[in-house]
Amino acid sequence: MQIDWWTLGLQTVNALVLIWLLSRFLFRPIAAILAERRAAAARVLEDAAAKAASARALEQEAQAALDRLASDRAASVRAATAEAEEARRVLLDAARAEAERLRADTQAEIERMKKSERRTEAERANLLSLDISRRLLERLPATSQVAGFLDGLVKAVGALSEETRAEFSQRADTVLSAARPLTAEEEALLRGELAKAFGGPVTFSLRADPSLLAGFELENEHTSIRNSLRADMERISAELVKGQDHG
């Protein structure tokens, strides 16, 4: 077999030209297209990754918002529960206080009514005793209505301070009430004893007051000396009422 070197050389040159042409006009554009497509694919992948990251971030934000909403809701529920419990406690305290006030008011009203009844009973008893005393005195001599009471009046004057006795002596509105009209002798005796008790003459007007039952009462605008059976019975009645009130 004989090799034709010219033909082989030409074919080799043709092959090299073909390879150069292919690399120039086919392989490079294809490589550029492939590179461009790889870059586009990379950009798409990067965009997808960015979108996925953004989606994950949005999901995390949504979850955080849900968590905050749930936490706020739980806090609101706790606050509402605490507020309701506080309102319940306040209402219960107010109801207890109102009940206690009503109980105290009721008890005070009961005590007031009891005291009022006791005072009414004491006043009735006092009126009855006054009526009985009046009837008994009607059976006794008239002298019993003043006899024995003058000494008590004089002692009461002597127990006054000097300032008060001086005031009695200087005032012109002093009145001496007697249980009955006095005789001239009784009036003279009365004025004389009072002058001794006051340490000098004392000016007073004399009047009869049967409601005294027995005894005397000496008084002016500021001071009074009561030495009468009516005053004694009123003091006894007041002490009885006071004792009942404290009982």
Entry summary:
The chain has 5 helices and 4 strands. The protein is of the alpha+beta class and 247 residues long. Strands 2-1-3-4 form a 4-stranded mixed β-sheet.
Verbal overview:
- With 247 residues, the protein is α+β, with helices and mostly antiparallel strands.
- It is 76% helix and 7% strand.
- The protein contains 5 helices and 4 strands; from the N terminus they run H-H-H-E-H-E-E-E-H.
- Strands 2-1-3-4 form a 4-stranded mixed sheet.
- Helix 1 (5-139) packs antiparallel against helix 5.
- The radius of gyration is 63 Å and the shape is rod-shaped.
Segments where pLDDT lies below 50 for 5+ residues? none
Quaternary status of these chains?
single chain
Radius of gyration: 63 Å
The 3D shape can be described as: rod-shaped
Give the biggest sheet: 4 strands, mixed
Mean pLDDT: 76
Tell me the series of helices and strands, N- to C-terminal: HHHEHEEEH
What is the helical fraction, as a range of percent? over 70%
Please list the strands of the largest sheet in the order they lie side by side. Answer: 2-1-3-4
